[in-house]
Amino acid sequence: MDIEDIAPLSLIRGSREERREKIIDFEKAVQTMDDVEHLTTLKHAFLDGAYFRQITIPAGVALTGKIHSHSTINMLTQGKFAVVTEFDQQIIEAPYMYISKPGTKKACYTITDCIFINCHTTWKTDLKEIEADVTDDAYPEIGEDDKLWLGGSQGQQ
Fold it and tell me: I want to staple 64 with a disulfide (CB 3.0 to 4.6 A). Which of 27, 29, 41, 103 is the partner?
């Protein structure tokens, strides 16, 4: 299976700017579907300057992430999902860990039941304050030398 097999992720193509627009369009389409929040389970944990956000997502769910303003450690601890960013597209299978650079927004589709964890650096424990600090409402300006990527390797620890 590859991204071309997963509609509507297969439609996110084109230049970097076009992919950004299509990810936003994908997000708008997903928001008109069934409320994903009742299908998912969130858990939060805090430890010495780190905030961990774990989401459990059943198979067959399309969703997007927020634009993060800082680098973020991402861990898929269970399952398999397809992910598209303005730079990359991959099918990821647990165990998998990677770093998202600032400004990355992900469009995803869960192929199997998944457990996904983000880790952010913060000393705050109020979830609304954390979200305000670690997310942005819009993509950053595109610079010539900025390289956002979906990096990592299968089973990296």
Answer: 27
Cα dihedral 127, 156, 39, 100, rounded to 10, equals 50
Give the CA angle between residues 19, 8, 97 to the nearest 5°.
70
pLDDT of residue 6: 59
89 contacts 16 by C-beta, under 8 angstroms: no
Task: Assign residue 49 the CATH number of its domain.
Answer: 2.60.120.10
105 neighbors 26 (Cβ within 8 angstroms): no
155 located within any domain: no
What span, in angstroms and rounded, lies between the C-alpha atoms of 154 and 71?
A: 19
Contact between residue 135 and residue 66 where contact means Cβ atoms under 8 Å apart: yes
pLDDT of residue 54: 96
Evaluate whether residue 143 is within a structural domain.
no
Task: Return all residues near 44 (Cβ < 8 A) that are at least 6 apart.
Answer: 51, 52, 53, 54, 127
pLDDT level of residue 153 (50, 70, 90 thresholds): very low
Helix (H, G, I), strand (E, B) or coil at 79: coil
Backbone angles phi, psi at 22, to 5 degrees: -70, -35
